[in-house]
Structures are given as structure tokens and as C-alpha cells.
């Protein structure tokens, strides 16, 4: 009786979008031969080959940045003077604050085991009533676990001031207050949680040849061949980011009141606030290249003797992939910008002209959040935003 049983399975179970590269490795060339054995002989070959890669990477980052910056040339007083000119002139103030947090990058590069090439099994030319058996079990398993947890808290307070000057109750002289410009620039950038898993190319896989032929009458011949390749990937990110930013630029709040017998001039510089907050969090990458699995099968049962029993059982589970990618992002941005040139007074002055001029006030606030990107497949960063491309470049650089 001749029996041929084949089972070939190629499966993929994947989660949504993320970037990881896992290539099931290839089994190297295997040749098994049972040949030329005498009558009534009992011949058995059993081969089990296993290649396993287990990678576990875990990061936890707790970051707390507290920044308090004060730049001040104001708060000057020239009050209650008699018989002369009074002049208050303040210099400019500039505050530049940059806070950058980069945390939690997992990169796993797994070399190809080169373990799934051609497989050749031959049972031939054995005597009558012989019992000939070949069992081959070869598998490759890769398991990658990558997790990141990031807790980032930024408290930034910036105060830039040239104002709050006073020249009050002066007599017999001109009074002048001139405040310089006030500029505040605050930049907060957070880039956290990146997982990238790659396995070098496995190649195109191999062919399998199983042959039962030319065995004697009454012989019992069997070949059981099982080849398997599987990938298990778990990538998880949890990011909690809170930014509290307060920025104040002031040239105002000046007072020139109750002066007598003189001209009063009050002018303020410009006030500018520029605040930028950017959050990038949670990037998973899985790139599946060639599985290195069986690409061809040649099974032959021929020319065996009278009342021989010949069986071929072949099972190929190629590139069974279970990919799980998850992201959780909780972002809070609290931004307070205040630029002020006003609240100046030139009141209750006697016998002189009053002049009051304020500079411009400008507030620019930019908040950007990009979070939770999953890519599976032969991912091209060109199809993703340039921001994520830069983030991935950082992840590779940090490795």
C-alpha cells in the first residue's frame, strides 16, 4: 500500500500598523538516506532540529523636569526728586529655555540562523521484509518581547521683565522712563518609547524532496517530515506626558505720576513670547522579510516490491506569525503665555507735556502631539511622516 499525506500551512495573524522586522530564518541543507540494507533488517533514522531565539527588552523611564527662569532689569524707582531731570532707562531681557527628553528605545537585530535550506530524504534499495523509517522534525522559533513605560513631567516657568519702573512726585525737571525689550523663548520636546525588531534576511527558503523507491517485496517504508517556522512578537508602549509651561514677557506697568514743572515721557519696548511644545510617543516596528520557508516539494513513491507498505507524511507550517502591537498615550499640555507692554500711567502731572508710547506685544504658541504608530511589513519610512522618520533615526542612533 502506498500512502502520501501532505500538509502545508502558511499563516499570518497580525495587529494593526507598527514597525518591526522579523524574518523567519532558513533551515540549512539536510540529507537523510536509508539505502542498500539487507532483507529483514530494521532501519530507523530520527532527527530533531530546533533553533530558538528569545528576546526580552523592557524600559521604564520616570522623568521630572522643573525649570524656573527669571530675567529682570525692571522694578526701578526714581521718585520725589527736586531740581533736575529724571531718566530711567532699562536694558533688554532675553530668556531662552530648552527642555528635551528622549527615553526608552528597544532595538533587536536577530541574525539569520541559515537553517531552512534544501531537505532530501531517500529510502531506496532495501531488502525484502525490511522495516525502514525516517523521522525528521525541524523548526525555527523567534520570540521578541519589547515594552516601554515612560512617565514625563515638565514644569517650566519663565519670567522676563523690564517694566514696573516708577518716576513719581518729581519737581522742576523733565521725567523720562524707557524700558528695553523683553523676549522669552521656550521649547519643550519629548520623544519616548520606540520598539524596532528585525531579523536579517532569511533568503528564499529551500526545496524538499522525499523519495521511497526500489525497496523489496513485503518491506515497510515510511518517511515523516515536519518543517516549521514561527514568529511571536509583542510590542507595547505606555506613555504619560504632562507639560506645564508658563511664559511671561513684560515691559509695561510703568508709572510717571504727580510730577511738576517738566515734560513727562514714558515709552516701553516690545514684548514677545514664543512657546513650542512637541510630543512624540509610541512607535512600534515589525518588518517581515522572506520567511525562508519551503518553496517546493517533490514526493516520489515508485518501483517498490510486491506487498510493500510505503508512506510519506509531510507537514510544513511556514511563517506562522503572531504579532501584537499596542500603544497607550496620555498627553496633557498646559501652556500659559503672557506678553505685556501696557498698564502704564502718566497721571496728575502739572506744567509740562505728557508722552506715552508702548511697544508691540506678540504671543506665539505651538503645540504638537504625534503618538501611536504601528507598522508591519516591509515598511518604507517614506510612506510615513518625516517626523516619524526622524524618530526612527533617533531610535537606531541610540542603539
Q: How many alpha or pi helices?
A: 1
Question: Main sheet: which strands, in order across?
Answer: 1-15-11-7-3
Taking the alpha carbons of the first and last residues, their distance comes to 59 Å
Structural class: mainly beta
**Any idea what the radius of gyration is?**
39 Å
User: Major sheet, described briefly?
Assistant: 5 strands, parallel
The best one-word shape is rod-shaped
Mean pLDDT: 80
Low-confidence stretches: 1-27, 379-387
SSE order: EEEEEEEEEEEEEEEEEH
> What is the beta-strand fraction?
over 45%
How many extended strands? Answer: 17
**Helical proportion, percent range:** under 10%
| Number of structural units classed as domains | 1
Concise structural overview:
The chain has 399 residues and is mainly beta.
Secondary-structure blueprint:
Elements: E1 2-13, E2 27-35, E3 42-72, E4 86-89, E5 93-110, E6 116-124, E7 131-161, E8 175-179, E9 182-199, E10 206-213, E11 220-250, E12 264-268, E13 271-286, E14 294-302, E15 309-340, E16 354-357, E17 361-376, H1 386-398
Parallel strand pairs: 1-15, 2-6, 3-7, 4-8, 5-9, 6-10, 7-11, 8-12, 9-13, 10-14, 11-15, 12-16, 13-17
Describe the 3D structure.
The chain has one helix at 386-398; strands at residues 2-13, 27-35, 42-72, 86-89, 93-110, 116-124, 131-161, 175-179, 182-199, 206-213, 220-250, 264-268, 271-286, 294-302, 309-340, 354-357, 361-376. The chain has 399 residues and is mainly beta. The protein has a five-stranded parallel beta sheet with strand order 1-15-11-7-3, with no helix packed on it. A four-stranded parallel beta sheet has the order 2-6-10-14, with no helix packed on it. Strands 4-8-12-16 form a four-stranded parallel beta sheet, with no helix packed on it. It starts with a strand and ends with a helix.
Amino acid at each position: 500500500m502506498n500512502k502520501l499525506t501532505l500538509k502545508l500551512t502558511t499563516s499570518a495573524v497580525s495587529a494593526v500598523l507598527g514597525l518591526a522586522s522579523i524574518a523567519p530564518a532558513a533551515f540549512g541543507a539536510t540529507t537523510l538516506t536509508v539505502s542498500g540494507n539487507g532483507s529483514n533488517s530494521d532501519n530507523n533514522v530520527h532527527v530533531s532540529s530546533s533553533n530558538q531565539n528569545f528576546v526580552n527588552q523592557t524600559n521604564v523611564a520616570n522623568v521630572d523636569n522643573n525649570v524656573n527662569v527669571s530675567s529682570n532689569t525692571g522694578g526701578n524707582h526714581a521718585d520725589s526728586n527736586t531740581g533736575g531731570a529724571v531718566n530711567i532707562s532699562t536694558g533688554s531681557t532675553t530668556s531662552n529655555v530648552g527642555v528635551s527628553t528622549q527615553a526608552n528605545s528597544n532595538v533587536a537585530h536577530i541574525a539569520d540562523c541559515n537553517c531552512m535550506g534544501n531537505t532530501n530524504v531517500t529510502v531506496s534499495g532495501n531488502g525484502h521484509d525490511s522495516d525502514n523509517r525516517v523521522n525528521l522534525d525541524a523548526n525555527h522559533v523567534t520570540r521578541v518581547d519589547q515594552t516601554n513605560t515612560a512617565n514625563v513631567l515638565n514644569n517650566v516657568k519663565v519670567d522676563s521683565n523690564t517694566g514696573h519702573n516708577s518716576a513719581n512726585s518729581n519737581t522742576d525737571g523733565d521725567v523720562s522712563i524707557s524700558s528695553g525689550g523683553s523676549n522669552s523663548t521656550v521649547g519643550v520636546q519629548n520623544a519616548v518609547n520606540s520598539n524596532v525588531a528585525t531579523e536579517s534576511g532569511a533568503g528564499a527558503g529551500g526545496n524538499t524532496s522525499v523519495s521511497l523507491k526500489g525497496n523489496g517485496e513485503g518491506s515497510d517504508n515510511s518517511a515523516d517530515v515536519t518543517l516549521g517556522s514561527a514568529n511571536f512578537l509583542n510590542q507595547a508602549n505606555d506613555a504619560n506626558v504632562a507639560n506645564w509651561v508658563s511664559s511671561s514677557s513684560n515691559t509695561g506697568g510703568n508709572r510717571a505720576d504727580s510730577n511738576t514743572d517738566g515734560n513727562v515721557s514714558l515709552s516701553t519696548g516690545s514684548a514677545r513670547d514664543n512657546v513650542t511644545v512637541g510630543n512624540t510617543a509610541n512607535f512600534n516596528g515589525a518588518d517581515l522579510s522572506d520567511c525562508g520557508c519551503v518553496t517546493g516539494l517533490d514526493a516520489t513513491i515508485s518501483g517498490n516490491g510486491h506487498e510493500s507498505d510505503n508512506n510519506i507524511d509531510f507537514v510544513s507550517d511556514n511563517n506562522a506569525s503572531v504579532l501584537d502591537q499596542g500603544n497607550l498615550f496620555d498627553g496633557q499640555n498646559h501652556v500659559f503665555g503672557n506678553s505685556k507692554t501696557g498698564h502704564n500711567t502718566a497721571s496728575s502731572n502739572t506744567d509740562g507735556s505728557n508722552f506715552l508710547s508702548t511697544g508691540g506685544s506678540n504671543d506665539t504658541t505651538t503645540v504638537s502631539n504625534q503618538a501611536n504608530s504601528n507598522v508591519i511589513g516591509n515598511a518604507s519610512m517614506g510612506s510615513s511622516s518625516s517626523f516619524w522618520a526622524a524618530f526612527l533615526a533617533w531610535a537606531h542612533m541610540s542603539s
